[in-house]
Amino acid sequence: MVISKKQKVFLVIIHIVLILMALIMVLPFVLLFLCSLTDEATLVLNGYSFFPAKFSLAAYEYLINSGGKIIRAYGMTFAITIVGTILNTLLSSLLAYGLSLKGLPGRKILSFLVFFTMLFNGGLVPTYLWYSTYLHITDTFFALVIPQFLMSAMNVIMIRTFFQNSIPTALYEACKIDGGGHWLIYRKIVLPLGKPILVSMGLFAGLAYWNDWTNGLYYINVNKDLWGIQSLLNQMITNIQYLSQNAQAASNVDMANLPSTAVRMAIAFVGILPVLIVFPFLQKYFAKGIAVGAVKG
After folding, report:
1. What is the pLDDT of residues 272-292, one digit of tens each?
2. Are 144 and 179 within 8 A, CB to CB?
3. Among residues 8, 99, 202, 264, which one has the fewest Cβ atoms lying within 10 Å of its Cβ?
4. In whole angstroms, what is the distance from residue 90 CA to residue 85 CA?
5. Stated pTM of the model
């Protein structure tokens, strides 16, 4: 295939634009990592820089000194993310499959109710009272899984649209002719063919669970061992800020050697590192699932 001169120029421009966009997204992470390796005094004096005048591992040493808590918090976060993502994807796909069936009684009403929750909710106080007073999940593992992310209206709508556009209804009819019910259709047809959108929505749910610290703040009041990594790191940042601003509380702490700014950068980097490692392996499913699931059915 012969490429004309205009096409070559167009491709060069497109590549330059894409490279610039990639740099815009990647460079903040690079700056974050470099700042976490920068000496605290250098950060205060020179500000953030891609070329630090003096490197230091003091921020990571501070985190390592809290190693037991961090390892436990990482373990809790992995458990919360895995269990929550599986439940979120399973429940969302089950509801989406039902809504994708054209003969479902009350389908429009159910679709409206799902969409309505994207626009309005009961508010923080009624939600907290419901989970703490009636469901009694305070200071339990379920407090970190059930609130907010167990069912996502956006995920349901995206999955439903994918099922409608990508899975032929003839497959459903063929399975019914062979004696299969909806549960068999869901397991043998919907789940295998819906893998791209399920992985994509599972990634969204996983990110929500991984980055969540509000559930730990609201519902974990006594048993701090249930805190995930985000809740623990947020508490560490709060402690550092308190010591930095309260001279009396910091009287026994060497504030000159406490890398308060660098620690915040290190904490942010530690928090996002597992996501950066996992995402490339799911990217192909993510791109396909979003492209098809976003098409209006």
Report:
1. 777 777 777 666 655 555 554
2. no
3. 8
4. 8
5. 0.74
CA-to-CA dists, residue 197 to 125, 130, 251, angstroms? 33, 32, 54
What digits encode the pLDDT tens for the residues 158-214?
A: 888 888 888 888 888 888 888 878 888 888 888 888 888 888 888 888 888 888 888
Q: Cα 44 to the chain's mean position, in Å? A: 32
Instruction: Report how far residue 42's alpha carbon sits from residue 19's, in angstroms, rounded to the nearest whole number.
Output: 31
Instruction: For residue 22, give every residue at least 6 positions away whose Cβ sits within 8 Å of its Cβ, in sequence order, or none.
Output: none
Q: Other CB atoms closer than 10 Å to residue 286's CB: what's the count?
A: 18
The encoded tokens of residue 243 equal 């010591």
């059930």: which residue's tokens? 146
DSSP the chain: -PPPHHHHHHHHHHHHHHHHHHHHHHHHHHHHHHHHTB-HHHHHHH-S-SS-SSB--HHHHHHHHTHHHHHHHHHHHHHHHHHHHHHHHHHHHHHHHHHH-TT-TTHHHHHHHHHHHHH----HHHHHHIIIIIS--TTSGGGGTSTTTSS-HHHHHHHHHHHHHHS-HHHHHHHHHTT--HHHHIIIIIHHHTHHHHHHHHHHHHHHHHH--HHHHHH-SS-GGG--HHHHHHHHHHHHHHHHH-TTTTTTS-GGG--HHHHHHHHHHHHHHHHHHHHHHHHHHHHHHHHHHTS--
Distance CA 143, CA 141 (A): 5
For 250-273, b where at least 16 C-beta lie within 10 A, e where not — what string? Answer: eeeeeeeebbbbbbbbbbbbbbee
Q: Which amino acid is residue 90, in one-letter code?
A: L
229-245 vs 67-100: helix crossing angle, rounded to 10 = 130
φ, ψ of residue 38 to 5 degrees: the values are: -95, 145
93/194 Cα distance (integer angstroms):
9
